[in-house]
Every structure is written in structure tokens, then in C-alpha cells.
Design goal:
Blueprint (H helix, E strand, L loop, with lengths): L1 H5 L2 H71 L1 H7 L2 H16 L9 H27 L4 H27 L13
Helix pairs in contact: 2-4, 2-5, 2-6, 4-5, 5-6
């Protein structure tokens, strides 16, 4: 203590060094807090992005389930047409297909990840509409014309192919935001 008292400039040096140390500690604490804040912010963004990715997958799968139900109905009606004619159950199948077509028309296809999936959904909806037209023609004519039968075979095959394509995409989809645009087709 005597040595410090004898050197009067030493107190000012100790104060200056203490100020520098306090300054560096304050800068270090601020830097560490900023780094932690950025890390927490990035973690939150990553968590929200993961939730959005999972939501896209869930939405696509739900849409695919609806489309599969409608496609199976279309394929089933096309394949059962001779029995439908014999049973006279065209009105019952027509009502079920109308409900299915209405159901598929309510799907948010513009929120789907890619033009190809939206196209597949629309193709199934068109197949349902075509089957409805064939059922209308059968209801009016009372029989299945060669043209209607050929149309049924084509509708059934197209619906099966579309369903297969969409199922493959849904199974492989990982939730990315990249889409296939119509101009890329």
C-alpha cells in the first residue's frame, strides 16, 4: 500500500486499465448476447420452416387421399358399367359421383406443391365429369353405346395412370417449396 501511495500516477493507470477491461467485458457480453439472440432467432425460423414443411406434406397427403377416393370411384364405376346397366343402378352411382366431383372441386389445388400434382387432381375431376356424362347418356338411352363403352375404357385407364403418378409423387415428396411450373413441363 505504501508503494501505491508513493506513486501518485499509479492510481490513474489502474483506473485506465480497469476502464479498458470493463469496456472489453461490456463489449464481450453484448457480443455474446447478440450471438445467443441470433441463434435463438435462427432456431425459431428453422422450427417454423420445419412446421411449414410438415404442414405441406400433411396437406398434400390429405388431398391425395381425397383424390384417391374419387379416382377409385371413377375406376369402379367404369369397370362395373355392364353390371350397373343390368341392375339399373346408374342413378345411385351418378349421385355418388356427383358428390365425389363436388368434393374434389373444393380441394385447394393451387396450394399444392407443383403443377403436376394440380394437373393430376384436375384430371381426376375431369374423369369424374366424363363418367357423369356417360351415366347421363345411359340414363337417357337406356343402354351402353359402343362410343360410351370406349369412352369408359379410356377414362378408367387415364384415371389409373393419373392415380399412379400422383401416388408416386406423394410418396417421394419431402415437403420442399420448389415447384414444377407449367413452363417447365
Amino acid at each position: 500500500m505504501n508503494w501505491m501511495d508513493s506513486n501518485s500516477g499509479l492510481a490513474s493507470w489502474a483506473q485506465a486499465i480497469g476502464s479498458f477491461v470493463a469496456l472489453f467485458v461490456a463489449i464481450g457480453v453484448a457480443w455474446w448476447q447478440g450471438r445467443q439472440s441470433r441463434k435463438l432467432f435462427l432456431d425459431q425460423i428453422n422450427h417454423e420452416a420445419e412446421e411449414a414443411r410438415l404442414q405441406r406434406i400433411s396437406s398434400l397427403r390429405a388431398t391425395a387421399e381425397v383424390v384417391e377416393i374419387v379416382a377409385r370411384r371413377v375406376i369402379g364405376v367404369a369397370r362395373k358399367m355392364p353390371d350397373i346397366l343390368m341392375e339399373g343402378s346408374a342413378p345411385r352411382h351418378k349421385d355418388a359421383l356427383e358428390v365425389a366431383a363436388l368434393w374434389i372441386s373444393k380441394l385447394p389445388i393451387y396450394e399444392l406443391p407443383g403443377a403436376l400434382v394440380a394437373r393430376d387432381v384436375q384430371n381426376i375431376a375431369l374423369s369424374a365429369d366424363r363418367i357423369l356424362k356417360v351415366l347421363d347418356a345411359i340414363s337417357i338411352d337406356g343402354n351402353l353405346s359402343a362410343k360410351s363403352y370406349k369412352s369408359l375404357c379410356g377414362i378408367s385407364d387415364a384415371a389409373e395412370k393419373t392415380l399412379e403418378d400422383m401416388s408416386f409423387f406423394v410418396d417421394e415428396y419431402k415437403g420442399g417449396v420448389g415447384v414444377i411450373r407449367a413452363v417447365d413441363l
